[in-house]
Design brief:
Layout: H1 5-36, H2 39-66, H3 69-90, H4 99-127, H5 133-161, H6 164-182, H7 189-195, H8 202-215, H9 219-233, H10 238-247, H11 253-276, H12 278-283, H13 285-304, H14 309-337, H15 340-368, H16 374-394, H17 396-399
């Protein structure tokens, strides 16, 4: 797999864009929270990132299945490069951030990612063999988590040491590198033909993609489960975790960064662990998804009981590995069981549903944190995780699923 240069080009595109958008978002989030002291306004960055997924998901899925996915990667990275360039003009000379303007820029960046992500994920099975899907997803997820961990660790330091405009210039360079690298990816004509969906009208293509997902024995329950999981996922958003750190643990932004780094370090180790058990993941992905969903619930409850910052860091770290292994299993299961010509629409629909739930849950929990102890919000999240595990356990098709190319 690592000798496959076109997969490595896709891998570099993935890490460059992940580092760029996470670094920009995190530095903006911290700046807004420090300027306003408002959890709700900080959560606005999350809303700006998730709203486009809800509005544009169906369009993105059709385009990802109709046009060469490589071209979508290139065009969306160029769009994001231009948007960050515009963002520089919103940064006032006194170091203050125009909150409304930055929300608009983040919304544009997220809109581009709505098209970029399904194209990127759908391209993986076109570049690697079926039996290497688990390894490929593990490798990409591990790299992603390293980039996010770097963003949280470096972002907090950068925002104190470097003007925001200079950070934005660095983000522009990363998007430019990603666009140039995507140009080097080559997909064979046969693979592009297999990847393309039927040439239907836009409306018929959207409806056929939805019907395909609704009738698919694996994709449907997996999408339902992941959508519900994004209710508790919202409590791990940057703003709510920052509120937990300051209100429950009496910490500060640096302590928030330690917890995030601990979690992403665990995710990295879990992604590497998924490589080590790739054969087992291919044989029993459904069972792994069930077990790890229940583990997420128990570990969230343990995190909610943390009394010190370092206890929270430890639980955040332990939370990472099972979460990473589950993510690898879910992506590989979709890529291994869904038709190539439908994969873009399935991914886009999944993202649309997850984003809208994540957005409204984040707003709701941020509002709720003004009325009840922040610990109770994390207890609620743990219970919801447990319920998703029971749902997966009750669905036989998902529970007993295997990555069989004939499925």
């Amino acid at each position: 797999m690592l000798r496959n240069r076109h997969f490595l080009f896709l891998w570099f595109v993935n890490i460059a864009t992940t580092l760029a958008i996470e670094l920009f978002t995190i530095t903006i989030l911290v700046t807004i929270y420090e300027q306003t002291g408002s959890t709700l306004q900080a959560v606005g960055t999350m809303v700006a990132r998730t709203m486009p997924g809800f509005l544009l998901g169906p369009i993105a899925g059709v385009l990802a299945d109709r046009f060469p996915r490589k071209n979508l990667l290139i065009s969306m990275d160029i769009v994001r490069l231009l948007l960050v360039g515009i963002a520089i003009w919103f940064l006032q000379g006194d170091g203050k951030v125009s909150v409304t303007g930055i929300y608009l820029i983040l919304t544009g960046l997220s809109a581009a990612d709505v098209f970029h992500r399904p194209a990127r994920l759908s391209l993986i099975p076109s570049l690697v063999a079926h039996e290497q899907l688990v390894r490929a997803n593990s490798f990409i997820l591990a790299s992603n988590q390293i980039m996010v961990a770097i963003s949280y660790t470096v972002g907090g330091w950068l925002i104190l040491a470097v003007p925001l405009r200079q950070i934005a210039l660095g983000v522009i360079i990363l998007f430019a590198m990603a666009a140039l690298t995507a140009m080097l990816i080559v997909v064979s004509e046969r693979q592009e033909t297999d990847d393309a969906g039927e040439r239907e009208s836009f409306w018929k293509s959207s409806v056929s993609g939805w019907n395909y997902l609704r009738q698919h024995p694996i994709a449907r329950p997996l999408t339902v489960m992941e959508t519900v999981e994004h209710l508790p996922h919202a409590i791990w958003s940057g703003a709510l975790l920052l509120a937990f750190t300051t209100k429950a643990l009496q910490g500060d932004a640096s302590d928030w960064g330690y917890q995030a780094t601990g979690y992403f370090t665990g995710m990295i180790l879990g992604s590497v662990g998924a490589l080590a058990i790739s054969d087992w993941l291919r044989r029993f992905p459904g069972r792994i998804i069930v077990v790890n969903a229940c583990a997420a619930g128990l570990l969230t409850l343990a995190f909610a009981s943390s009394q010190t910052v370092w206890m929270a860091v430890a639980w955040a770290f332990v939370f990472g590995p099972p979460n990473a292994i589950r993510d690898v299993a879910q992506d590989s299961l979709l890529q291994g069981t869904v038709e190539r010509g439908q994969l873009g629409r399935v991914y886009a629909t999944r993202e649309m549903l997850r984003n809208v739930v994540f957005m409204f849950a984040g707003i709701f929990f941020a509002w709720l944190s003004d009325f009840i102890p922040i610990r109770m919000i994390y207890v609620t999240g743990g219970i919801i995780y447990m319920l998703t595990g029971f749902y997966a356990l009750s669905n036989k098709a998902l529970r007993e699923s295997k990555m069989d190319p004939d499925v």
